[in-house]
Amino acid sequence: MEKSHSRLDRHFDMPGIRTVGNTRPLQWLRMGWEDVLQSPLASLAYGVTFALLGYLILAFAADKPYLFTAAVSGFLLVGPLAAAGLYEISRRRSEGRSCSLLESLQGIARHKGQLFYFGLMLAIVLIGWERMSAILFAMFYKGDAPDLANFFGEVLFSGAYTHFVVAYMVVGGALAVLVYALSAVAVPMLMDRETDIVTAMMSSARAVGFNLGAMILWAAIIVGSMALGFASLLFGMVILLPIIGHATWHAYHELVE
């Protein structure tokens, strides 16, 4: 079912939005897995790259808890852009064509202008979140910053810093919801058609709003996959992130007219 929003349509060339069932994300995962099987070398190359990036985050921020939490959440924020090559693989597969790693990189290069501006927007958000994270630590945590090994026990789960935990979750959660709504299917749209980032972000927000149940489940799957990836010492990232990336393409393809 297609929906429109007349006020936005007056100012932007907005595509129609379809509605899907609340459990549809499970099918997106299945299709994402099929894309990995069809293009294993290119897909897993991105998975290895993501895992190495995650390792660098862990290594750099291991002794800086406020940086660590901001960096891990930032990893989720920039994920939609980092998976652009995976969207190109799925896009070509949907047209009945194969796609090598080099061809996926060429697809990114063709849309580098709009992807750059989208990445700049995400970078600003990420820097802002890192600063807000530091401010929250300074406001609510008065002791010496614990190392990461003691951070969860001393701060998050001790009950001694409830105000900090609540403030951190509220601020971080609000930012995450905003970024998720604006980026859920924006980058696949930029890879698929000639459009601007404002139209792509508004289309993404509409897709989330019109399919709230499905997109809440999809967000939970993404967060759960990332948590599992980090919990597996990043080995899980090698396969989980390509599946999520390909599945995101199928989400866009079904939701955006």
How would you explain this protein's 3D organization?
The chain is mainly alpha-helical and 257 residues long. The protein has one domain. It has 13 helices and 2 strands, in the order E-H-E-H-H-H-H-H-H-H-H-H-H-H-H. It has helices at 6-11, 24-38, 40-61, 65-82, 84-94, 101-110, 112-140, 148-156, 162-183, 186-192, 197-210, 212-231, 237-255, and strands at 2-3, 17-18. Helix 9 (162-183) packs across helix 11.
Main traits of this protein?
mainly alpha
Put simply, the count of helices is 13
Number of domains: 1
Q: How large a portion of the residues is in β-strands, by DSSP E?
A: under 5%
Major sheet: arrangement of strands: 1-2
Structural class: mainly alpha
Shape: globular
Oligomer kind? single chain
Residue share in helices?
Answer: over 70%
| Spans where pLDDT lies below 50 across 5 or more residues | none
Order of helices and strands, N to C? Answer: EHEHHHHHHHHHHHH
Helix-strand layout with pairing:
Blueprint: E1 2-3, H1 6-11, E2 17-18, H2 24-38, H3 40-61, H4 65-82, H5 84-94, H6 101-110, H7 112-140, H8 148-156, H9 162-183, H10 186-192, H11 197-210, H12 212-231, H13 237-255
Antiparallel strand pairs: 1-2
Short description:
The protein has 13 helices and two strands; from the N terminus they run E-H-E-H-H-H-H-H-H-H-H-H-H-H-H. It is mostly helical.
